[in-house]
Amino acid sequence: MSVIVPTFNRAYCLARTLDSALAQTYAEIEVLVVDDGSTDDTRAMIESRYRNDSRIRYIHQVNGGVAKARNTGIAAATGAFVALLDSDDVWRPWKIELQVLCMQAFPEIVMVWTDMEGMDPSGRIFDKAYIRTMYSAYQFFPEGTLFPEAYPLEGIAPSLQAVVQGAKLHKGYIFSQMIMGNLVHTSTVLLRRECLDQVKGFNEALRYSGEDYDFHLRTCRAGPVGFIDLAAIQYQRGMPDRLTRAEYHIHTATNFLNTVKPFIDNARAEINLPQSMIDVMLADAYLWIGELQVDMDDDANARKNLIFSMRHRFFQPRAWLFYLACFLPHKVRAWLRGQYRMIKAQIHPGISHS
User: Fold this and answer.
1) Under 8 Å CB-to-CB from 28, ≥6 apart: which residues?
2) d(CA 109, CA 129)
3) pTM of the complete model
4) Beta bridge partner(s), residue 342
5) N or C, which end of the chain has less CB nearby within 10 Å?
6) Radius of gyration in angstroms for the set of CA atoms belonging to the chain, rounded to a whole number
7) 209 or 213, which is more confident?
8) What is the pLDDT of residue 333?
9) Nearest C-alpha neighbor of 183 from the set 135, 113, 139
10) Which of 27, 34, 230, 28 is nearest to 14 (CA)?
11) Alpha-carbon dihedral angle through residues 311, 315, 318, 320, given to the nearest 10 degrees
12) pLDDT (tens digit, 9 = 90+) per residue, 102-158?
């Protein structure tokens, strides 16, 4: 079993992540640390802390982005199962054992992922079941409706009965549902090697964000998948070097649309969703891009994307307001934006709105 950990200048938190992988109750494990051109003490930390642990394999490459780093790890991995772990997240010790048992019980499953706890920079857990909060596409699928099958984990993993009480493995083919948005968190997944060979890894052109959704969408097209409704990782939020920072939001929004649109255009017959649902998703996607472009004063492109949004769903007061804002002088727009944020802050005190 191979674990791929891409990292870039994360010496300050990487050891905690690696220790959680090495502490797995599943014994047959290798951990490939793919250093994407770090300039901090990553190499020295690895050599000092793990020099006597043969399970750690350190690979250094010229900086090429997280997608390239993961692909480097996939190419070097030797396990029949491959797990992905971001360099600031932490696994529960039973994570891999539970996922392998699920995949052994259902050989048709190509990937299985889990829920996660949300953890802030101080280490405080602020949400014990965070995946439905983080990934908004879950809103389209109330609990119990995303997958056609569910199996109690007590019967699949009797050795972990104290951990899995009441939790289930949900199973099915959900390529259509994934069109509505990402449902999978990368640090929670375990994949079969043959699935990786079929999916062909991460799209390295998606340098700053969106590579996860593209990869998981293609994986869910490859066959049935499974979701464990139990938090098996602690997901780190709030670090200053995360790719979810505000300056990357436009990349996230445009990469999402660029990922999903070709499937809608070229594989519509495979997508078992009503056109009304797809129109809602596309309207939201174009609106997302348009709003960000208004904030960037990119008025021409903002108007274009807001019009596309309203073509998919005409009655959208928010889209119309942003469209009209494109014609206002910059100073007026800045003042209105400030008033809007002040009102939101008064309605939701203590919440930061950037």
Assistant:
1) 1, 79
2) 23
3) 0.90
4) none
5) C
6) 21
7) 213
8) 75
9) 135
10) 34
11) 60
12) 999 999 999 999 999 999 888 899 999 999 999 999 999 998 899 999 999 999 999
What SS3 string covers the chain?
CEEEEEECCCHHHHHHHHHHHHCCCCCCCEEEEEEECCCCCHHHHHHHHCCCCCCEEEEEECCCCHHHHHHHHHHHCCCCEEEECCCCCEECCCHHHHHHHHHHHCCCCCEEEEEEEEECCCCCEEECCCHHHHCHHHHHCCCCCCCCEEEEHHHHCHHHHHHHCCCEEEEECCHHHHCCCCCCCHHHCEEEHHHHHHHCCCCCCCCCCCHHHHHHHHHHHHCCEEEEEEEEEEEECCCCCCCCCHHHHHHHHHHHHHHHHHHHHHCHHHCCCCHHHHHHHHHHHHHHHHHHHHHCCCHHHHHHHHHHHHHHCCCCHHHHHHHHHCCCCHHHHHHHHHHHHHHHHHHCCCCCCC
> Which single residue is written with the structure tokens 């934006």?
337
**Is residue 94 within 8 Å of residue 162, measured between CB atoms?**
no
How far from 143 is each of 89, 127, 162, CA to CA, in Å? Answer: 25, 17, 24
Residue 285 and residue 281: Cα distance in Å, rounded? 6
The amino acid at 31: V
Q: What is the pLDDT of residue 350?
A: 39
In the predicted model, what is the mean pLDDT of residues 291-301? 91
Residue type, 286: Y
Report whether 279 contacts 312 (CB < 8 A). yes
Q: Minimal CA–CA distance to 255: which of 202, 195, 201? A: 202
Is 199 in contact with 215 (CB distance < 8 Å)? yes
Q: Furthest-apart CA pair in the chain: how many Å?
A: 65
- Backbone region of residue 201 per phi and psi (left: phi > 0; alpha: psi in -120 to 50; beta: other values): left
